[in-house]
Amino acid sequence: MVTLTIILGRNRNLAHELEALDIDLWIVHDPQPCPVSLGLRSFRQAIWHCHIDSSTTTRTVWNDLQRYITGNDRLVFCLPEYVNGRVPKERIRFVRPAIDALTPKNLPLPLPEAKEILAGLGIDPHRPLMTQVARFDPWKDPLGVIESYRLVKKECPSLQLALVGVMEAQDDLEAQVVFEQVQRHAGADLDIHLFSDPKEVQEREVNAFQTASTVVLQKSLREGFGLTVTEAMWKGSAVIGGNCGGIRVQIEDGHSGFLVNTPEECASRVIRLIREDGLRTQMGAAAKESVRKQYLIPRLLRDYLQLIEEVVLGRA
Ligand code: UDP
After folding, report:
1. CA pair distance 20, 17, nearest whole angstrom
2. CATH 3.30.565.10 fits 111-294, yes or no
3. pTM over 0.85
4. What residue ranges do the domains of the chain occupy?
5. Which end of the chain is more exposed for a tag (fewer CB within 10 A), N or C?
6. pLDDT tens readout for residues 260-313
7. Mind listing the pLDDT tens digit for each residue in 123-134?
């Protein structure tokens, strides 16, 4: 288990390594490296970017964190609801994440090629497919996805389901437990495909799933921002997302995708999208346009440049 003592020790070492550098502006990401600020004499102008939902952080943890973030000129969060109430309001700014359209995961992949990749992974490209790309984690609700699939399967017997949750870290015991639970829940259904091996599914394969699935799901019960939603929308896919966190910000319900609260709602939207080609195309186009306008790297770069200018020029 990683304790505060270990984290502080690592930060002391990091501060020692960084001390020699002549740095004008620090940008520190997330809570883990925050304590580095206390060990640095050169820590003058700084921005802390918190990518996670800190709103429900316990008082004890927040008190510890507060000591390390008070030296920052700006405290950046992804969404207003993720701010913990105990930070100075005038220093708060919001920056939403973005995806890199030039990586193998997000570059355009012609549909026939994407289908060929999926066929190589045992998916029948001629039958409908619903996919969720997500870590095996209870908040991503993989069991709810299987429940939705079973409801749809009654109406569309040829339906297939892919749950893609590559496990990079061998010691992620929680993911392993959830994966085994999902395996048991899937049972002997040959149309449910589970992927967890990083050798089998890499960026291009994720791209293929997000490009060639009939419907992409991100049926989370709780979510940070939900980059998988952004990625699938960027490919012009019809996406159904859990009505929570950043998914709610990204999907305009009924226009650029669907937001759902239950497996039943999810199943009824999947059925509509399987049956209505026009709706799928229309939603996919709206989804892609929304990502183009709001969630690509150049917008993130612009936000960052504004933030840096503000701090460096000492603007309020
Ligand atoms: N991802 C992946 N392979 C997988 C599962 C997830 O490459 O099997 C990637 C996914 O494409 C996305 C990221 O991991 O870029 C997950 O980000 P997201 O914000 O959706 O969820 P998080 O895991 O951070 O809660």
Report:
1. 7
2. no
3. yes
4. 4-97+297-313, 111-294
5. N
6. 999 999 999 999 999 999 999 999 999 999 999 999 999 999 999 999 999 998
7. 999 999 999 999
Task: Give the Å distance between the CA of 227 and the centre of ligand 1.
Answer: 7
224 within ligand 1 shell (Cβ under 6 A)? yes
Cα 243 to middle of ligand 1, angstroms = 18
Tokens for 217, please give them: 């799901």
Average pLDDT, the chain: 94
**CA–CA separation, 192 vs 143, rounded Å?**
12
Architecture of domain 4-97+297-313: 3-Layer(aba) Sandwich (3.40)
- pLDDT, residue 37, reads 83
Is 4-97+297-313's fold the same as 111-294's? Answer: yes
Confidence class for position 41, pLDDT limits 50, 70, 90: confident
The atom of ligand 1 lying closest to the CA of 203 is 7
Cβ–ligand 1 distance for 125 under 6 Å, the answer: no
- Integer Cα distance of 200 and 121 in angstroms: 8
pLDDT score of 115: 98
